[in-house]
Structure formats: C-alpha cells, structure tokens
Design goal:
It contains twelve helices and twelve strands. It has about 375 residues and is an alpha/beta fold. The strands form three sheets. A seven-stranded mixed β-sheet has the order 3-2-1-4-5-6-7, with helices on both faces. The chain has a three-stranded antiparallel β-sheet with strand order 8-11-12. Helix 5 links the parallel strand 4 and strand 5. The longest helix has about 35 residues. It is elongated, with a radius of gyration of 34 Å. The mean pLDDT is about 85.
Amino acid sequence: MAQPVCMIGVSTEQNTTNLIPAVECGIRTFILVETSGAQKNQWSVGLQQVLHDRKIAVELICLSKDEDTRIDLISEKLEEKLDNHPVIWNLGGGQKAQQLALWQTFLKRTAQTIADQACYTNPEKHLLEWWAWQNGKLTYSEARTEISLQLDELFTLFGFEKKSGTLLYQKEKAVHWDNLLDLFAFQEFREYLFQLSQTSPMAFDHQAKYQIAEIERHLNAAQPGIVNAIQQYLDTVVQNSGTAVLENEENKNSLCNGIANRARSILLQELRGTPRPRVMEFKDAGFLNLLCDHFSAALTVMPIDSKLLEKVSGCHKSAEYFEKIVIQRVKAILETQPHHIASAYYNVEVQKSGTPRVIAEYDVLLLTQWG
C-alpha cells in the first residue's frame, strides 16, 4: 500500500510536534488547522517557512474564535477539504476539541474503508507511534524517529534567526578545527592564568571597564560640587583665622580646583589599580618541557603578562583561551564518545526574526538527533 502524501495537524506553540512527523513521513502537503489563538500569536509562521524550504506545501484551515472548540464544525471543514485519497492524521498539538475533531474524522473515514492512518510523535521515547484500522480492529505500531533537523530550521520554527555561529561538529562529517595546546592539566599554568586575570591591565574584563567608566563619569559630574564645598570650607577658614592670602579670589579658585583635581586623580588611580611587575616561578618538569618547545631557552621564572599565553596559544586573554579549550574539549568528546548529538556549533548569536538585536549567546550549542 502506498504511503499517504498528505498530513493533517493542528498548529501549536511547540510545532516540532508537526514538523518531525511531516519530514519523517516524506509528505508533499500539510493541511494545518489554526485556531484563532494560533493565528493571533503567529505560531505557524516559522513552521510554514521550514516546510516550504523542504518542498512541502501548506494549506490552512483557519478557525474563528467561535469555531475553536466546535468539534462538529471542525470535522465538517476537514471533510470538505479532503477527497477519498488516504491521509495521515497527526495527533500532536492543539487542545482536546481540535484533536477530538481530527480523531472523529479519522474514524469516520476509515469506516468508509479509506485507508487513513493516525500518528503521534512521542518526544520522551523518540518514537513515531501509529494507528490504523485493519480487519475491523484498531492496530498499533511504532518506529524510531530518524530525521536530523538543522539548527537554522529550529530557530526559524520558533521565530528566531542565527546571526552568527560556526559549525563545530556534524555526525558522519569531518569538521576542521585548529587544535590549541591544552595546558589546563598543569596546576602552575592554571595559577598563571588566574594571576594574569588579577594583575594585568590587559585582563580587565568588560564589566570592570564599564564600572570604572561609570565611576569616572560620576566624578566628572561631581567636581563642581567638590570645588564649591572646598570654597565654602576655605571661606570658613579665612573667617575664623583671618588668613590674608586666601582672600584673593583668583588664588582661592586656583587652590580649590587644584585640590579637586588632585583628589579626583588619586581616586581614579586607586580604582584602576597600578600594575606592579610580578613574576612566577615554574617548577613542574612536564610543563617546563612543553615551554621549551615554544621558547629558545629553558625558562623557570617569567613575568606574569600575556606574552606566555600568546606564545603557546595565540590568545591575548585568559578568558579567550579558556573558551577555546572548552570548545575543543566538547568537540573531542563528540568525536570519541557515544551520544545522540547530530551537530554542534560555537560562538552562536541568536536574534528574533526581523530584528537586529541579539537576545542570546552560546559558547557551544548542541543539537540532538531528534531536534
């Protein structure tokens, strides 16, 4: 018996329940029942786009608010849409009223000896479950879902776009990656990275920079008030002590601004910190042997700056090196251990469809073989 080429389903917020069986069954047309709520929230926009890209035509049955729960009216609309060719009824998605309408129509058509089938995607067991009427009896069968959805398809399905991101791993396909020297096994190297992040001006993270800039902005705004406060203070001093030299306005203003500038400079210097020359002694023989591969002479004492990191990895910051090593280790696990990951990406930025604003970032994003 030929496999039906048309499927009927109900639009839902979680439209993988429609996409997976549609792709798995190789259909050519998907008839999608949309409630008034689904239309308002545009739940099917992404689904229609993905199905279109996979050469699957979509036909809509749009319900009004008064029709959303009318099992009888939904069944009538479905019967008007269909001829006597067998179809697949997808029983995922929607609410009870819409699913009852699908099931009722399925039963009515099979009673007319039309060889329809019903299916349900079981997400926990990763199964596609099937029902059909044979010899007057409802039969059951099941099969594992085997399709591999692409990351862009899933983002599109839920109304998102991948702004950036690079493929790290794909099942049964070689993906190039420039391996870095992984030195995290050495405790002395881990200590070096920690000290580098604490002492080097190069290692200031963005948050710290923003905090300092914000404090500097407040100090700039506060300086006139500081000057005024000092002037009032000096006026009191003059009034009480009679110091003649401070009665000259030009001298007094100059003195006040000098005091304010000095105070501001000292505060900012304290906030930024003053990097002091620091060194670190390496004693681990295994680590020192690796250093010999990158330096012309054996070095046991080195300054805590970014030069060592740049030499062994090409990275300028400890955070950059850490991120790349995590990505590298994930790739190694995916290539050597059993798993259910279909593909992996790194440095992924996600935006809402039609908008430029990034709403999520992922160092590593894994896509399972079940989508």
